[in-house]
Amino acid sequence: MESAGILPFPEQGYSMHQMPGPGLHQGNPVPRWKSLLFVPAHVDRFVKKANERGADGIILDLEDAVPQDRKSEARRQLSASVAQVGSRGASVLVRVNRGLRSLAVDLEVSVIPGVHGLVLPKVDSAEWIVEVAGAIEELERERGLVLGAIKLLAQIETPAALLRLPQIASGHPRMAAMALGPEDFSAAVGAAPDFDLLLGPNLSVLFAARAAGILPLGFIGGIGDFSDIQKFRQVATHARRLGFAGALAIHPSQVAILNEAFSPTVEELEWAGRVVAANHQAAEQGNSAFAVAGKMIDPPIVRRAQEMLALAGGS
Fold it and tell me: Which of 66, 182, 252, 292 has its CA 20 to 30 A from that of 47?
């Protein structure tokens, strides 16, 4: 099975579009990651092909995808892997390990030019985010890197973390995105990654991320089911309707589906254009509510239309 992933912020993967919410990042640009592809960092053939997959970002995985006896090898070649996967402009991220000893080694090899984000697994508190962010800053200073350039994507994988989501999401200015780890979360509660179990936790992550002004990533289901492409497309489309902005993929076949599902359709863009145009006309007449195609439009709907056009590169 092939897979991919890591994060710099190239033009096509980073947007000046502002996400709603009064949180820490309001007024700052947030990344536009419709698709982030995991790639096991020790498998050369996956690394070499990752930049051809069309993902907004590639996550070079040093954690679960790498056997314990191959982690040293993956770390040794990480610098070359970063250059390889980012050569066509995809964002480059590295997923580090959670344990203190492994994390320390991972940070030493990951805080380098070309890496603009770290994926932190099994995040359970804002205090942990702050500790990791402090270590990253020390390395940035020592190495003459731009302070604060390396962002964080937190994976929520335990029930305890659900109780602290608002604090985690807004725990540090480096926070850029948050996602539920469905397989680990399900295992932690002794359950299968079914819709009924994952709906509530995913929505909690979504709400906390939006409130903090960071990117909510995910869909309702297990990440490993990539064989039924039609079902995966339905799941991804549903996630966008719920409010998610993108998702993580473990197989190249999922990338194009995520890119499509988390992009506005032609019909949606046409609707948004009509709404924005009608809003301009209504404003000139001193009105804040008006009708388009027989449906009432007010400021929240106008904002949704404006965000849709911004996602597509419109005004």
Answer: 182
Q: Which domains does the chain have, with CATH numbers?
A: 11-263 (3.20.20.60), 267-311 (no CATH)
Q: What is the pTM of this model?
A: 0.84
Which stretches of 70-186 are assigned E, i.e. beta strand?
91-95, 117-120, 151-156, 175-180
Q: Tell me if 96 sits within 8 A of 106, measured CB to CB.
A: yes
Sheet holding 35-40, edge to edge: 215-217, 175-180, 151-156, 117-120, 91-95, 57-61, 35-40, 247-249
20 pLDDT exceeds 60?
no
Nearest 5°: the CA angle 13, 18, 23 is: 115
Q: Enumerate the β-bridge partners of residue 37.
A: 58, 249
Q: How far apart are CA 298 and CA 148, in angstroms?
A: 38
What pLDDT score does 30 carry?
Answer: 67
